[in-house]
Design brief:
By secondary structure, the protein is mainly alpha-helical. The chain is globular and about 55 Å long.
Length: about 140
């Protein structure tokens, strides 16, 4: 199995399922925002520099993604008390309406269109749920990444 290709396919399907109505144009793509959000969930209280190092994105791109996530109410930022030049980023303690909307997005239509055998939708969704249960945001921290 080509895990990297599967990951890219799942990322693109996830992007396609995200509701975009009413959010306007942004300078950052959904994929970048998703990657940065996942990194912040796995490493709460982290500075932009560290997110950039882990994701391979330039700091300017991470900052743009963080701004978009902050606008959506998905993250909070605060000044690092030990170095006032750094900003620390953490997941927001409460789920914002925008985050709730994205999390509740219906993936059935996107998956049905992507499947060679659409009648297997429920089987594929069950498999994805199992994968998500075992390989959630904490999986990368367990691998040392």
């Amino acid at each position: 199995m080509d895990l990297a290709l599967l990951g890219r396919t799942l990322m693109k399907l996830g992007e396609a399922a995200i509701p975009t109505e009413g959010i306007g144009a942004h300078g950052t793509g959904a994929q970048s925002v998703i990657i940065v959000a996942a990194d912040i969930r796995a490493h709460p209280g982290t500075p932009v520099k560290d997110v950039a190092a882990r994701t391979g994105f330039p700091q300017s791109k991470v900052s743009a993604c963080v701004a978009r996530l902050r606008e959506a109410g998905a993250v909070e930022t605060r000044t690092d008390p030990s170095d006032r030049r750094r900003t620390l980023i953490s997941p927001a303690p409460d789920v914002s309406p925008r985050v709730a909307e994205v999390r509740s997005a219906d993936i059935d239509d996107v998956l049905t269109r992507a499947l060679e055998e659409p009648e297997r939708l429920n089987e594929v969704k069950a498999a994805l749920s199992l994968i998500a249960e075992h390989l959630g945001p904490g999986a990368l921290t367990r691998t040392g990444d």
